[in-house]
């Protein structure tokens, strides 16, 4: 990700935060629709993301095209995205998609953990090869894959999680469904001012163990910690913790493998 895109994303996030009282599930879905529209129209995307165009002209273009068609919060977010400089024109599509995920996470009830639900969707996908194939197939129409998602999640996941997963399968943008779900989880966690840690252990961890681990990770990353927990008996014992690109591997299986390598 280029520095211009990082700065643009910060501006988009700030605008979304300023709209807090007006942001709801509908706003998130509108931002997804705008991302898909710009992704499918080279001409529109070029006009909105043109770094050489006058910012006020781009704002005027956005207003003419979308006033009255999307909510004020979605329009304000798109207007901000349009006047930013992006490292690549296509980055504005990713920026609007991220804004949609953040809008949904921002407006979700405190009692709902969208991150946990996304993790469970990922588990369901990874445990069913046919389902994963159906969702990642380039031959299947987007609407057909969205239909699979709606049937899979009906009555099992919140409207918020369903909306995010629908977007991920409708417009994968070169990502696998597993990668997309992990990315969405990280965005949701970041929106909640937390980091996402995937903890793999040989057996289920107790609440006291998780609390100690949370204390260590909070001190290390300076943020609250949201956990995904995975059971993998092949680790034998110990833990493997992944936070973003950081991997802390203290599993017995890895230690034994290291010993074997040293002996060889």
TrEMBL record:
Subcellular locations according to the entry: Cell membrane; Membrane
Membrane topology, from the record: Peripheral membrane protein
Alphabetical UniProt keywords: ATP synthesis, Cell membrane, CF(1), Hydrogen ion transport, Ion transport, Membrane, Transport
InterPro entries for the chain: ATPase_OSCP/d_CS, ATPase_OSCP/dsu
Family annotation (Pfam families): OSCP
Predominant localisation class: membrane
Keyword Transmembrane helix: no
General function of this protein: This protein is part of the stalk that links CF(0) to CF(1). It either transmits conformational changes from CF(0) to CF(1) or is implicated in proton conduction.
NCBIfam families to which the protein is assigned, alphabetical: ATP_synt_delta, PRK13430.1
Family (UniProt): Belongs to the ATPase delta chain family.
UniProt xrefs under PANTHER family: ATP SYNTHASE DELTA CHAIN
Record-given protein name: ATP synthase subunit delta
Organism of derivation: Gryllotalpicola reticulitermitis
Gene label: atpH
């Amino acid at each position: 990700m280029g520095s211009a895109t990082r700065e643009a994303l910060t501006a988009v996030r700030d605008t979304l935060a300023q709209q807090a009282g007006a942001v709801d599930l509908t706003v998130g879905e509108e931002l997804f629709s705008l991302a898909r529209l710009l992704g499918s129209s080279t001409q529109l995307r070029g006009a909105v993301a043109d770094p050489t165009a006058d910012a006020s002209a781009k704002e005027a273009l956005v207003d003419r095209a979308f006033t009255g068609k999307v909510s004020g919060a979605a329009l304000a977010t798109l207007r901000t995205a349009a006047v930013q400089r992006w490292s690549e024109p296509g980055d504005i599509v990713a920026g609007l998609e991220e804004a949609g995920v953040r809008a949904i996470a921002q407006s979700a009830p405190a009692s709902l953990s969208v991150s946990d639900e996304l993790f469970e969707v990922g588990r369901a996908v990874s445990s069913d090869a046919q389902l994963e194939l159906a969702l990642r197939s380039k031959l299947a129409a987007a609407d057909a894959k969205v239909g699979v998602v709606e049937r899979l999640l009906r009555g099992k996941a919140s409207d918020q999680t369903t909306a995010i997963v629908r977007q991920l399968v409708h417009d994968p943008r070169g990502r696998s469904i597993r990668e997309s779900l992990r990315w969405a989880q990280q965005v949701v966690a970041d929106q909640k001012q937390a980091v996402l840690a995937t903890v793999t252990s040989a057996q289920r961890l107790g609440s006291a163990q998780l609390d100690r681990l949370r204390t260590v990770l909070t001190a290390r990353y300076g943020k609250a910690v949201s956990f995904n927990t995975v059971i993998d008996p092949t680790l034998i014992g110990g833990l493997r913790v992944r936070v973003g690109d950081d991997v802390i591997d203290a599993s017995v299986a890895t230690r034994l493998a290291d010993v074997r390598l040293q002996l060889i």
